[in-house]
Specification:
This protein is of the alpha/beta class and 208 residues long. Helices cover 31% and strands 19% of the residues. The longest helix has 20 residues. It starts with a helix and ends with a strand.
Length: 208
């Protein structure tokens, strides 16, 4: 938990309590439904929570911003961001029902009113969102094709509406068609732990 307050020192007491509750909730649910590698649960705050919150280092979502988290798994990056931005609206989706069961249970336990969790594939959605976020569910070109028609035209945040994608490793090949318009941010610019040395945020504003 200390690693969260290290980089986000201005959390309210309520937010601190919500972040602190995550470990117990995920530890208990993970014993029933494996949404995080069991050997990795000890690294929940570093590998999952803080990684998710890296998005908050490039944007502060304004009130009523609509965000879609595609392939949320156990709720990342959506749940940590929903704690941090309680006035924004998050739609967390995954095609696997048991993962959504965990997301709903964790959200309810935390008292999060700004999350809707749903078992559905992204291509079935008809709503539009200001930002679409995800954590490396597929290659970036495939992801772009999946969600490019689901983004609102009118922007109200400092960043233009678009895709914010967390990805690690070598992304040169898959980004070759997007380099002219995408911004690639090194997470190590914000967080100094070795885990983040190869982790990146891909931000692609959508052109209309």
């Amino acid at each position: 938990m200390e690693i969260i307050t290290k980089y986000f020192p201005n959390l309210t007491v309520g937010q601190q309590n919500q972040f602190e509750s995550l470990y117990k909730l995920y530890f208990e649910w993970n014993a029933k439904i494996n949404v995080i590698s069991r050997k990795d649960i000890e690294n929940l705050y570093l590998h999952h929570v803080l990684h998710s919150l890296s998005i908050a280092k490039i944007i502060e979502f304004k009130k009523d911003t609509r965000i879609l988290d595609v392939g949320t798994g156990g709720g990342f990056p959506g749940i940590p961001l929903a704690i941090l931005f309680p006035e924004s609206k998050f739609h967390l989706i995954d095609s696997i029902g048991k993962k959504i069961t965990v997301v709903k249970a964790v959200s309810d336990s935390l008292g999060l009113q700004n999350i809707v969790a749903e078992q559905i594939r992204a291509e079935m959605l008809t709503k539009k969102y200001d930002f679409i976020i995800s954590r490396a569910v597929t290659s970036f070109p495939e992801f772009f094709t999946l969600v490019e028609d689901k983004i609102n035209i009118a922007s109200k945040n400092k960043l233009k509406n678009g895709i914010i994608y967390l990805k690690g490793g070598d992304i040169m090949d898959e980004m070759k068609d997007f380099y002219s318009s995408a911004k690639i941010v090194e997470i190590a610019d914000f967080f100094n732990e070795p885990f983040f040395e190869t982790k990146k945020i891909i931000y692609l504003p959508i052109k209309f």
